[in-house]
Amino acid sequence: MSLKVAIVGSGPAGVYTAEALMKQAPGAVEVDVLERLPTPYGLVRYGVAPDHTSIKSIAGYLRRVLELPGVRFLGGVELGRDVGVTDLLGCYDAVVYCTGAMVDRRMGIPGEDLPGSVAATDFVNWYCGHPDVPADRFTLESPEVAVVGVGNVAVDVVRVLAKDAQELRTTDVPEEVLARLAASQVKAIHMIGRRGPEHAKFTLKELRELGELANADVCVRPEESVADLTGASRQTRGNVEVLQSWAARTPAGRPRRLDVRFWMRPVEILGEDRVEALRLERTRLVEGRVEGTGEFETLPVGMVLRSVGYRSVPLPGVPFSEATSTVPNEAGRVRDREYVAGWLKRGPTGVIGTNKSDAAETVRTLLSDLAGREPVPHDDLDALLASRGVSPVTYDHWLSIEAAEAALARTLGRGERVKLLGLAAMLDACGR
Ligand SMILES: Cc1cc2nc3c(=O)[nH]c(=O)nc-3n(C[C@H](O)[C@H](O)[C@H](O)COP(=O)(O)OP(=O)(O)OC[C@H]3O[C@@H](n4cnc5c(N)ncnc54)[C@H](O)[C@@H]3O)c2cc1C
Ligand SMILES: NC(=O)c1ccc[n+]([C@@H]2O[C@H](COP(=O)([O-])OP(=O)(O)OC[C@H]3O[C@@H](n4cnc5c(N)ncnc54)[C@H](OP(=O)(O)O)[C@@H]3O)[C@@H](O)[C@H]2O)c1
Questions:
Q1: CB 344 within 8 A of CB 98
Q2: Which residue's alpha carbon is at the smallest distance from atom 34 of ligand 2?
Q3: Average model confidence (pLDDT) for the chain?
Q4: 153 CA distance to ligand 2 centroid (A)?
């Protein structure tokens, strides 16, 4: 008899877990992938920047996993809302939690709750057309914007703000969002790093793209581009080299300007009813710790986007460490018959591929734990969901949503697909 496994979350971690189960126990496992949204692929669909089409094409690989015999996609099913942990343990031999890191981290400075102070998670969800964020969430009416953080998400956000909307026309950005990007009043973008260029988290390939923007001059202050490269990796040396080459550039008079700043930390967001400015303090490292120097600078920005990392949220009934915002585990094992993979397991770092080896480790643990166990009698998830009035979005429904997005792109004369906005539009497109 087959082992029945539920995977909660259909991002890279969830889908790679399904693939690892199929590969490590061929013919001996049946997998249901439960997903709160009607659409699979997690951050590949609602995180990876729309203009990074080659990375987005990883969805083509993930699709083949969901199409394997023995794998089922059940969209519109949320753990904690539609089903609980006890329900799943009654229906399956094992459950693997792969719900990622859905919310933002905060800076913990005064003014952070003023209108106009926003999380990159929200902004990314907006331009990616995530159903949790409506199209009218953002109006880019301020000429100056600060993006706090120098990681790859900050680079994505800055690039989307800096590009001319025309450059995004062939991407899958929802039409309503594209119209708002086209009406953007943004002229200057300040990207703020609280340490030096040698400490920035962005990767070289992503950084270089900023220097190739057709619509924006990129500026670095020579004095802020100085770096201590003792023991630095090739990646760090490459970053610093690129930043120093920008410090030597003369602006070409492009419509927008990107100022990449280092050794500046945000200390307060100023404004009466909404963001009017961001106060920064120059920093230095003292015994490896960032310290303020007492030298301040105020940027006249109308929007502050904090891109300072993501955070997982606890799942009801599942152990959670508030200290690390992850589910405590040993090589993926949480408790008897419960497992974890992806960002929920190790925190919000690493590229898509990192989740593949991570998922494979969890699956090895799971299969070794369950080897030789007597199968337990299963309750039927489909019947349970039906009794609660929950009717899952099937993989075929998802294909209908995809087809509707391709048809919309053709109608609008845009690229391969244009995302439908909102749950209602997606459910409508698949006849639900
Ligand atoms: C903005 C952004 C851009 C990125 N761009 C790149 C890139 O260009 N290249 C790259 O290699 N990496 C990129 N990454 C990193 C990459 O996206 C992550 O490594 C990867 O998505 C993590 O996979 P995951 O499955 O753990 O989480 P996720 O991808 O977040 O998937 C989690 C899934 O679980 C679902 N879910 C959540 N809660 C529940 C629940 N209660 N019940 C059911 N389902 C639930 C969610 O809807 C989601 O579909 C990016 C990350 C971010 C944040
Ligand atoms: N194209 C891609 O491959 C791609 C695209 C997007 C995301 N990703 C991956 O997804 C993961 C998450 O990316 P991320 O950018 O969200 O996180 P990240 O790489 O951890 O970067 C977070 C940034 O925020 C800064 N920061 C944190 N707290 C701060 C505070 N209170 N004040 C000021 N700055 C603060 C950090 O600075 P300190 O270093 O000083 O803490 C760092 O510069 C990463 O692994 C990333 O590589 C990859």
A1: yes
A2: 149
A3: 97
A4: 6
